[in-house]
Write a structure and sequence with these properties.
9-stranded parallel beta sheet; 11-stranded parallel beta sheet; mainly beta
Length: 330
Protein backbone atom coordinates (compact mmCIF):
# COMPACT_ATOMS: atom_id res chain seq x y z
CA UNK A 1 0.00 0.00 0.00
CA UNK A 2 2.13 2.84 -1.31
CA UNK A 3 1.82 5.93 0.84
CA UNK A 4 -0.61 4.10 3.12
CA UNK A 5 -3.49 4.49 0.64
CA UNK A 6 -5.53 1.39 -0.02
CA UNK A 7 -9.16 0.48 -0.63
CA UNK A 8 -9.77 -2.46 1.69
CA UNK A 9 -13.50 -2.98 1.20
CA UNK A 10 -14.91 -4.40 -2.04
CA UNK A 11 -18.33 -3.16 -3.09
CA UNK A 12 -19.00 -6.28 -5.14
CA UNK A 13 -18.13 -9.01 -2.62
CA UNK A 14 -18.84 -7.11 0.59
CA UNK A 15 -15.69 -8.53 2.19
CA UNK A 16 -13.84 -6.45 4.77
CA UNK A 17 -10.21 -6.64 5.73
CA UNK A 18 -9.77 -4.19 8.62
CA UNK A 19 -6.74 -6.13 9.87
CA UNK A 20 -4.84 -4.53 6.98
CA UNK A 21 -5.49 -1.01 8.21
CA UNK A 22 -2.42 0.29 10.00
CA UNK A 23 -2.01 3.27 12.30
CA UNK A 24 -2.26 6.51 10.38
CA UNK A 25 -3.34 4.97 7.05
CA UNK A 26 -5.71 6.69 4.66
CA UNK A 27 -8.37 4.21 3.56
CA UNK A 28 -10.33 5.41 0.52
CA UNK A 29 -13.72 4.11 -0.53
CA UNK A 30 -14.97 4.24 -4.11
CA UNK A 31 -18.63 5.00 -4.69
CA UNK A 32 -20.84 2.00 -3.89
CA UNK A 33 -22.34 0.00 -1.01
CA UNK A 34 -20.05 -1.93 1.32
CA UNK A 35 -21.88 -4.55 3.38
CA UNK A 36 -20.31 -5.91 6.55
CA UNK A 37 -21.40 -8.83 8.71
CA UNK A 38 -19.45 -8.05 11.87
CA UNK A 39 -18.37 -4.92 13.70
CA UNK A 40 -15.30 -3.22 12.25
CA UNK A 41 -12.48 -2.76 14.76
CA UNK A 42 -9.38 -1.11 13.33
CA UNK A 43 -6.31 0.74 14.55
CA UNK A 44 -6.41 4.48 15.02
CA UNK A 45 -3.58 6.86 14.36
CA UNK A 46 -1.03 7.83 16.96
CA UNK A 47 0.75 11.06 17.78
CA UNK A 48 3.61 9.85 15.59
CA UNK A 49 1.54 8.77 12.55
CA UNK A 50 -1.35 11.23 12.62
CA UNK A 51 -4.98 10.02 12.50
CA UNK A 52 -6.26 7.02 10.60
CA UNK A 53 -8.40 8.52 7.81
CA UNK A 54 -11.43 6.78 6.29
CA UNK A 55 -12.85 8.81 3.42
CA UNK A 56 -14.56 8.81 0.05
CA UNK A 57 -12.21 8.64 -2.91
CA UNK A 58 -11.83 11.73 -5.08
CA UNK A 59 -13.69 9.94 -7.89
CA UNK A 60 -16.82 9.25 -5.80
CA UNK A 61 -19.75 11.42 -6.93
CA UNK A 62 -21.83 10.45 -3.88
CA UNK A 63 -21.03 9.14 -0.42
CA UNK A 64 -19.91 5.52 -0.34
CA UNK A 65 -22.28 3.55 1.92
CA UNK A 66 -21.03 1.27 4.68
CA UNK A 67 -23.91 -0.92 5.84
CA UNK A 68 -24.51 -3.69 8.35
CA UNK A 69 -26.24 -6.87 7.25
CA UNK A 70 -28.26 -8.42 10.05
CA UNK A 71 -28.75 -7.26 13.63
CA UNK A 72 -26.98 -7.56 16.93
CA UNK A 73 -23.72 -5.77 16.21
CA UNK A 74 -22.47 -2.24 15.68
CA UNK A 75 -20.79 -0.88 12.59
CA UNK A 76 -17.53 0.55 14.01
CA UNK A 77 -16.42 -0.42 17.53
CA UNK A 78 -13.11 1.36 18.04
CA UNK A 79 -11.08 0.40 21.09
CA UNK A 80 -7.52 1.52 20.36
CA UNK A 81 -6.36 3.52 23.39
CA UNK A 82 -5.01 7.04 22.76
CA UNK A 83 -5.75 6.93 19.04
CA UNK A 84 -7.46 9.19 16.52
CA UNK A 85 -9.66 8.84 13.45
CA UNK A 86 -11.03 11.02 10.67
CA UNK A 87 -14.20 10.01 8.80
CA UNK A 88 -15.01 12.09 5.73
CA UNK A 89 -17.67 11.88 3.02
CA UNK A 90 -19.15 8.52 4.05
CA UNK A 91 -22.64 7.17 4.78
CA UNK A 92 -23.15 4.81 7.72
CA UNK A 93 -26.28 2.64 7.61
CA UNK A 94 -27.41 0.17 10.26
CA UNK A 95 -31.12 0.57 9.56
CA UNK A 96 -31.64 -1.45 6.37
CA UNK A 97 -31.65 -4.82 8.12
CA UNK A 98 -30.34 -3.96 11.55
CA UNK A 99 -31.62 -3.95 15.11
CA UNK A 100 -31.94 -1.42 17.90
CA UNK A 101 -28.50 -2.24 19.27
CA UNK A 102 -26.72 -1.24 16.07
CA UNK A 103 -24.52 1.85 16.56
CA UNK A 104 -22.77 3.76 13.81
CA UNK A 105 -19.46 4.56 15.57
CA UNK A 106 -18.52 3.72 19.14
CA UNK A 107 -15.40 4.98 20.92
CA UNK A 108 -14.73 2.27 23.46
CA UNK A 109 -11.29 3.02 24.92
CA UNK A 110 -9.75 5.89 26.84
CA UNK A 111 -8.26 8.98 25.20
CA UNK A 112 -9.73 8.43 21.75
CA UNK A 113 -10.66 11.15 19.26
CA UNK A 114 -12.81 11.03 16.13
CA UNK A 115 -13.50 13.81 13.65
CA UNK A 116 -16.54 13.35 11.42
CA UNK A 117 -17.04 15.63 8.40
CA UNK A 118 -19.58 15.54 5.54
CA UNK A 119 -20.98 12.19 6.65
CA UNK A 120 -24.52 10.80 6.91
CA UNK A 121 -25.74 8.38 9.58
CA UNK A 122 -28.97 6.40 9.46
CA UNK A 123 -28.96 3.96 12.36
CA UNK A 124 -31.38 1.81 14.31
CA UNK A 125 -29.41 2.45 17.50
CA UNK A 126 -27.28 5.42 18.52
CA UNK A 127 -25.48 7.15 15.68
CA UNK A 128 -22.38 7.72 17.81
CA UNK A 129 -21.52 6.85 21.39
CA UNK A 130 -18.57 7.45 23.70
CA UNK A 131 -18.11 5.34 26.83
CA UNK A 132 -14.58 5.91 28.13
CA UNK A 133 -12.68 8.72 29.87
CA UNK A 134 -10.76 11.31 27.91
CA UNK A 135 -12.43 10.70 24.54
CA UNK A 136 -14.04 13.13 22.11
CA UNK A 137 -16.04 13.60 18.92
CA UNK A 138 -15.71 16.63 16.62
CA UNK A 139 -18.68 16.74 14.21
CA UNK A 140 -18.95 18.98 11.15
CA UNK A 141 -21.48 19.34 8.29
CA UNK A 142 -22.99 15.92 8.90
CA UNK A 143 -26.49 14.46 9.34
CA UNK A 144 -27.36 12.09 12.18
CA UNK A 145 -30.65 10.17 12.05
CA UNK A 146 -31.50 7.53 14.64
CA UNK A 147 -34.70 5.59 14.13
CA UNK A 148 -34.96 3.91 17.54
CA UNK A 149 -32.43 5.55 19.86
CA UNK A 150 -30.34 8.75 20.02
CA UNK A 151 -28.08 10.67 17.68
CA UNK A 152 -25.38 11.14 20.34
CA UNK A 153 -24.90 9.32 23.63
CA UNK A 154 -22.17 9.82 26.22
CA UNK A 155 -22.08 7.08 28.80
CA UNK A 156 -21.07 8.88 31.98
CA UNK A 157 -17.30 8.93 31.45
CA UNK A 158 -15.18 11.88 32.60
CA UNK A 159 -13.22 14.34 30.48
CA UNK A 160 -15.49 13.70 27.48
CA UNK A 161 -15.79 16.41 24.85
CA UNK A 162 -18.36 16.58 22.06
CA UNK A 163 -18.62 19.45 19.60
CA UNK A 164 -20.94 19.81 16.60
CA UNK A 165 -21.12 22.58 14.00
CA UNK A 166 -23.45 22.82 10.98
CA UNK A 167 -24.97 19.39 11.63
CA UNK A 168 -28.52 18.02 11.53
CA UNK A 169 -29.90 15.77 14.25
CA UNK A 170 -33.12 13.73 13.89
CA UNK A 171 -34.16 11.03 16.40
CA UNK A 172 -37.65 9.54 16.20
CA UNK A 173 -37.31 6.57 18.58
CA UNK A 174 -40.14 6.59 21.13
CA UNK A 175 -38.94 7.77 24.55
CA UNK A 176 -35.48 8.86 23.43
CA UNK A 177 -33.71 12.20 23.31
CA UNK A 178 -31.73 13.51 20.36
CA UNK A 179 -28.47 14.31 22.16
CA UNK A 180 -27.87 12.74 25.58
CA UNK A 181 -24.91 14.25 27.41
CA UNK A 182 -24.49 12.41 30.70
CA UNK A 183 -20.77 12.93 31.19
CA UNK A 184 -18.49 13.13 34.19
CA UNK A 185 -16.09 15.74 35.56
CA UNK A 186 -14.38 18.28 33.27
CA UNK A 187 -16.50 17.38 30.25
CA UNK A 188 -17.90 19.72 27.60
CA UNK A 189 -20.73 19.85 25.09
CA UNK A 190 -20.51 22.48 22.33
CA UNK A 191 -23.32 22.88 19.78
CA UNK A 192 -23.05 25.76 17.30
CA UNK A 193 -25.31 26.42 14.29
CA UNK A 194 -27.01 23.03 14.14
CA UNK A 195 -30.51 21.88 13.22
CA UNK A 196 -32.18 19.72 15.88
CA UNK A 197 -35.61 18.56 14.76
CA UNK A 198 -38.27 15.87 14.90
CA UNK A 199 -36.93 14.45 18.16
CA UNK A 200 -39.17 12.02 20.03
CA UNK A 201 -38.60 13.68 23.43
CA UNK A 202 -35.99 16.32 24.37
CA UNK A 203 -33.75 17.74 21.68
CA UNK A 204 -30.75 18.03 24.03
CA UNK A 205 -30.57 16.41 27.47
CA UNK A 206 -27.66 17.20 29.77
CA UNK A 207 -27.01 16.32 33.39
CA UNK A 208 -24.55 18.71 35.09
CA UNK A 209 -24.42 17.06 38.53
CA UNK A 210 -20.63 16.86 38.31
CA UNK A 211 -17.88 19.43 38.69
CA UNK A 212 -16.52 21.32 35.73
CA UNK A 213 -19.09 20.56 33.03
CA UNK A 214 -19.15 23.22 30.31
CA UNK A 215 -22.21 23.51 28.03
CA UNK A 216 -22.22 25.86 25.03
CA UNK A 217 -25.36 25.87 22.86
CA UNK A 218 -25.37 28.83 20.46
CA UNK A 219 -27.16 29.71 17.19
CA UNK A 220 -29.07 26.42 16.88
CA UNK A 221 -32.54 25.77 15.49
CA UNK A 222 -34.84 23.50 17.53
CA UNK A 223 -38.03 22.44 15.73
CA UNK A 224 -40.68 19.85 16.63
CA UNK A 225 -39.03 18.30 19.64
CA UNK A 226 -41.58 16.08 21.36
CA UNK A 227 -40.81 17.48 24.83
CA UNK A 228 -38.35 20.29 25.60
CA UNK A 229 -35.83 21.66 23.15
CA UNK A 230 -33.21 21.61 25.93
CA UNK A 231 -33.66 19.74 29.21
CA UNK A 232 -31.34 20.12 32.22
CA UNK A 233 -31.51 17.16 34.56
CA UNK A 234 -29.88 16.54 37.93
CA UNK A 235 -28.42 18.98 40.42
CA UNK A 236 -26.61 22.15 39.48
CA UNK A 237 -23.12 22.23 41.03
CA UNK A 238 -20.47 24.94 41.31
CA UNK A 239 -17.63 24.86 38.85
CA UNK A 240 -19.76 24.31 35.75
CA UNK A 241 -20.50 26.87 33.04
CA UNK A 242 -23.32 27.47 30.59
CA UNK A 243 -23.65 29.58 27.46
CA UNK A 244 -27.06 29.05 25.88
CA UNK A 245 -27.98 31.92 23.56
CA UNK A 246 -29.19 32.95 20.12
CA UNK A 247 -31.19 29.73 19.61
CA UNK A 248 -34.64 29.43 18.05
CA UNK A 249 -37.12 27.10 19.77
CA UNK A 250 -40.21 26.49 17.65
CA UNK A 251 -43.06 24.03 18.22
CA UNK A 252 -41.49 21.98 21.00
CA UNK A 253 -43.99 19.78 22.85
CA UNK A 254 -43.48 21.33 26.29
CA UNK A 255 -40.83 24.04 26.73
CA UNK A 256 -38.09 25.62 24.71
CA UNK A 257 -35.76 25.18 27.71
CA UNK A 258 -36.67 23.19 30.82
CA UNK A 259 -34.54 22.94 33.97
CA UNK A 260 -35.25 20.28 36.57
CA UNK A 261 -33.24 22.11 39.24
CA UNK A 262 -34.79 25.41 40.33
CA UNK A 263 -31.26 26.68 41.02
CA UNK A 264 -30.75 26.87 37.28
CA UNK A 265 -32.81 30.06 37.42
CA UNK A 266 -29.73 31.70 38.95
CA UNK A 267 -27.76 31.10 35.73
CA UNK A 268 -27.77 33.91 33.19
CA UNK A 269 -28.51 32.53 29.73
CA UNK A 270 -29.99 33.91 26.53
CA UNK A 271 -31.23 35.76 24.70
CA UNK A 272 -33.16 33.15 22.73
CA UNK A 273 -36.28 33.12 20.57
CA UNK A 274 -39.40 31.08 21.41
CA UNK A 275 -42.65 30.34 19.64
CA UNK A 276 -45.49 27.78 19.45
CA UNK A 277 -44.11 25.69 22.32
CA UNK A 278 -46.70 23.49 24.01
CA UNK A 279 -46.49 24.59 27.66
CA UNK A 280 -44.37 27.73 27.86
CA UNK A 281 -41.12 29.18 26.59
CA UNK A 282 -39.12 28.06 29.64
CA UNK A 283 -39.37 26.80 33.20
CA UNK A 284 -36.87 27.35 36.04
CA UNK A 285 -34.98 29.65 33.67
CA UNK A 286 -34.08 33.25 34.45
CA UNK A 287 -35.80 35.45 31.86
CA UNK A 288 -33.52 37.47 29.61
CA UNK A 289 -34.80 40.95 28.75
CA UNK A 290 -33.75 40.41 25.12
CA UNK A 291 -35.64 37.12 24.67
CA UNK A 292 -37.93 37.18 21.63
CA UNK A 293 -41.46 35.80 21.39
CA UNK A 294 -42.27 34.68 17.85
CA UNK A 295 -45.99 34.60 17.03
CA UNK A 296 -45.86 33.24 13.47
CA UNK A 297 -43.90 30.46 11.82
CA UNK A 298 -40.51 32.12 11.18
CA UNK A 299 -39.21 29.67 8.57
CA UNK A 300 -39.30 29.65 4.76
CA UNK A 301 -40.86 26.16 4.52
CA UNK A 302 -40.99 24.10 7.67
CA UNK A 303 -42.48 21.05 5.92
CA UNK A 304 -39.45 20.86 3.62
CA UNK A 305 -37.08 21.53 6.54
CA UNK A 306 -35.99 24.85 5.10
CA UNK A 307 -35.29 26.78 8.28
CA UNK A 308 -34.01 29.96 6.75
CA UNK A 309 -35.93 32.94 8.07
CA UNK A 310 -38.99 34.14 6.17
CA UNK A 311 -40.23 37.72 5.93
CA UNK A 312 -43.39 37.37 8.07
CA UNK A 313 -43.68 40.45 10.28
CA UNK A 314 -44.25 38.45 13.48
CA UNK A 315 -42.11 35.53 12.29
CA UNK A 316 -38.80 35.54 10.47
CA UNK A 317 -38.67 39.30 10.00
CA UNK A 318 -38.98 39.76 13.76
CA UNK A 319 -35.78 37.77 14.22
CA UNK A 320 -33.95 39.22 11.26
CA UNK A 321 -34.58 42.81 12.28
CA UNK A 322 -33.40 42.42 15.84
CA UNK A 323 -29.99 43.27 17.13
CA UNK A 324 -29.88 39.77 18.61
CA UNK A 325 -27.88 37.49 16.30
CA UNK A 326 -30.41 34.76 15.54
CA UNK A 327 -30.59 33.05 12.17
CA UNK A 328 -32.41 29.86 11.20
CA UNK A 329 -30.51 27.21 9.29
CA UNK A 330 -31.53 25.91 5.88
Amino acid sequence: AIGGNRQTLDADTGNTDPADWKEGWTVEFDEGTYTVQAAIACLGGTAATGPTVLRASSSASSNPIIRTEGSGYDLFVLADTASSFVFKGLTFDTSTSGGSGDVGIQLNAVDMHAQITNCTFTTEGNCIIVTQNGSSFDLNNSTFTSILRRCITSGGASDVHISATHCKFIATGSGYTGINFNAGNTSSLTLIENEIRNIATHGVFFEPDVSGMMVTIVNNTFVNCGSAGIYQNGTLLAGSGYKIKNNVFWSCGTYGIQAADANFAKVHIGPNAYGDNGTAATTNILANSDDITVAADPFVEIGAHNYKLNSAATGGALLRDTAVDIEGLG
